[in-house]
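Bug #2210: token dump truncated for Uu.00g002050.m01.CDS01?
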Amino acid sequence: MQFLLVASLLLQVVASLPWPITRATRASRPRHGSLTWLELAQFHFEDYGLTNLCVECNKGEASDPMFDCLLKFDWMDPNVNHTCHCEKDWQWDGVTKENGPNNTYNTDYFVCKSEIAETFQFKFVTMTDLGAFTLMLSHIFRDSKDFPSPTVANLFGQTNLTLVSQEVSDTSLIYFTPDAIKAKIIGVTI
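Reproduced locally. Full output below:
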């Protein structure tokens, strides 16, 4: 019993002693030029840019049960100065908000562009209606700027969209945004 008492007192004394190397000095010690370890661990990615964003839904006759819808936009990744054009179609009954047989928007990633060294892909996260939805965007590319080759990076961006109604009729629904949209980078995998 006395041993436990002595051991606990010694542990408190040892823990309170000043140490020559603390976390603060370790983090602030330059290792790569004048950058600290903490600074080296940070990424400063720019937001994706989406332009010419439009949703069009059309059907031949007002009595047809489903609209044929198309989402299209141009996508710029300023982090690597690459672009692509995306177009994805789906069918919608004009009422249903949830994904399913009456609203077949993609909840899995759809590939807009795929090449040996990069892939642009996106998916719907939520869809309140044609003019209000959330997209998750993923750009996979070889990143020789930030990492040794042949490292592949995957940047994830997300944006909540509110589009303006341009045309609404029994056979045609068109929503767009005249502004450029920013998609915040919310994650990276390597």
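Output looks complete on our side. The radius of gyration is 26 Å. Marking as cannot-reproduce; reopen if the truncation happens again.
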